[in-house]
Design a protein that fits this description.
The structure is a homodimer. Chain A is an alpha/beta fold. Chain A has 13 helices and seven strands. The first copy, chain A, starts with a helix and ends in a 9-residue tail after the last helix.
Chain lengths: ~350, ~350
């Protein structure tokens, strides 16, 4: 009861202060920039205009609070995806424990290849084919109770470090995008992650890292199987059965499955986000579709191949995607020009 | 701006009134019964005790607000399911329009059988087999854009009436359960529907009928397919491909897929809810699992076959489920004894 009372008294104090401001005719928060890590420019202006238009009662573009849905791709949009997706690093770095439990795997590809990579031959990552990765994913992400997987992923996230910045992966989120998440939420938007990454994996850290609860993470998802332990207690086991491939057309399909309504704003950075941005922009009224372009080799990475940037298989942003963005009125965010600061840990 | 200011001033007035009450030492809302349609008894007491235990800071059973998830079956738990599930009525009553568009279906079973049923031979419903119903469901629920389906379902819901009460189906919700939904939400719980019914169907009316937004409806779900219209605009088509059969073990599996965490409270009324209630109750700390028993032939319906009630194929509540409930500490709600009023339209 003490906490509740304190909460109420503090809410009272805040409300009275706000009331006083209104009485004096001073617009509340007029001086506060919601996006301080952004340089002034078309991208920042587009976000601010979208929010103002959609939350102002009487505006022709007003969106009722219940309909305010915004979706964000994760890898390359909310956090760093180069040189390799964090979840792929998790899969690779989970192999030694797997081999310890089943020593016969040490001499079998692709497990043997992964052991070489982890011994220092990082270039050998390129040897892994898509079927290899699928086999590794099935072995490290499925076949265990959901609680066991969650504990393993949590442990890895607490210990693993990105090779360039020597920081936990969860610190490599983009500060400007964190500001957009908070700005949208402060204006009544429900923020969702819609990722090609594993839904169960991202849910482990989404709340602490982005303030996004597990139920607002849509990702590539496998089935689970309900069963009972020896003690009679029920539990769910992760199955190697794909329910939703949350990439490309799978993104709007996943949004329909998990959210059931069309977003008003969507953010991505690669061809895997194309259909989500198309679907968002095709709705009535004000819709915001934005793409992050990685064009800052010095402060982060530079890849496309759009606009003559180096080509990549990780987070490909083609010229055709760039052209569609320009044609459809999507806004391209240049990391180099639009972001004053990239990470919270930077000075 | 005027609306915003008025909102703030009204919030201010309410907060000050609450502050005054606290200053006077009068507990706010002490006199208000959150469950006025419930008779005093074990069921009502279990709900009130659960809420008090889980929201009181310092209580060993305290549940942090972010974890407060409660799930509700729909048919037979939140609204009437006899003599037949509303969605089955939707499927049957959609057949004439289907036959109008494709006249060759008029002489083909099961479409011809449905036409007989609708002409007055209601008993012929019993002739429909499960494969018949699946064929009818595929024909009436899939193959069209999601927006078209939504418009059709909305139209039907506005016009269709339950044969006994001559009221729209959406008015046949149980007032005591509506009170539980509101009571839980007022105490920080996120309320979800977890139904064997069609996810897209229930989402059409969940917000208006229960205050539950589409993204908090988990149901039996089919795939959709992303494509482009002649005008180049993208849209999703409902496909006859089952992604989630949200019954029995499918309920906890669906909860993991769509919500990603275990509920603290779950409500059901039939064997299809067994696994959801087991899964809920198996969690740590305070967990509430409840079952509605339809034992009031006069005011609603009576069916089991638990406790010697008449047997049924629609919302079966077996003696084995009843015995498991008693053994596991789930609470059985007797409509006859626990509910003072059943419907809001009753005097």
């Amino acid at each position: 009861m003490i906490m509740k009372t304190m909460y109420t008294l503090s809410a009272l104090a805040r409300t009275i202060a706000l009331g006083a401001l209104l009485t004096l005719g001073v617009p509340a928060q007029a001086q506060t920039d919601p996006l301080p890590s952004w340089n002034d420019g078309a991208a920042k202006q587009a976000i601010v205009a979208f929010v103002k238009d959609t939350i102002t009662p009487g505006s022709p573009k007003f969106v009722p609070p219940a309909d305010r849905i915004a979706t964000f791709d994760q890898d390359g949009t909310l956090w760093v995806e180069h040189p390799m997706y964090s979840q792929v690093m998790y899969i690779l770095e989970s192999v030694p424990a797997l081999v310890k439990a089943k020593p016969e795997l040490a001499k079998v590809a692709p497990f043997s290849t992964v052991l070489e990579i982890l011994k220092g031959d990082r270039a050998a990552i390129a040897k892994l084919t898509m079927p290899d990765l699928e086999k590794l994913a099935a072995a490290t992400l499925t076949g265990m109770p959901v609680d066991t997987f969650e504990a393993q992923a949590k442990k890895w996230l607490a210990e693993a470090k990105d090779p360039r910045w020597k920081k936990p992966y969860t610190e490599l989120t983009y500060l400007p995008m964190q500001e957009v998440l908070k700005y949208l939420r402060a204006n009544g938007y429900k923020t969702y992650i819609v990722t090609g990454g594993g839904q169960d994996f991202v849910r482990v850290y989404s709340e602490a890292t982005y303030g996004i609860p597990p139920e607002q993470v849509v990702g590539t998802a496998g089935g689970t199987k309900y069963g009972y332990g020896k003690d009679g207690k029920p539990f769910l086991t992760k199955e190697p059965k794909l329910l939703l491939n949350d990439n490309n057309a799978g993104k709007p399909e996943g949004i329909h499955l998990m959210i059931g309504r069309r977003p008003y704003a969507a953010f991505g950075n690669s061809t895997g986000d194309r259909e989500m941005l198309e679907y968002t922009k095709a709705g009535d009224g004000a819709r915001l579709s934005m793409l992050v372009l990685h064009d800052d080799a010095k402060r982060e990475y530079a890849y496309g191949p759009a606009q003559g940037l180096p080509d990549t298989k990780v987070g490909t942003f083609t010229q055709s995607l760039y052209d569609e963005a320009k044609k459809q009125g999507w806004v391209v965010i240049s990391i180099k020009d639009d972001w004053k600061r990239i990470f919270a840990f930077e000075p």
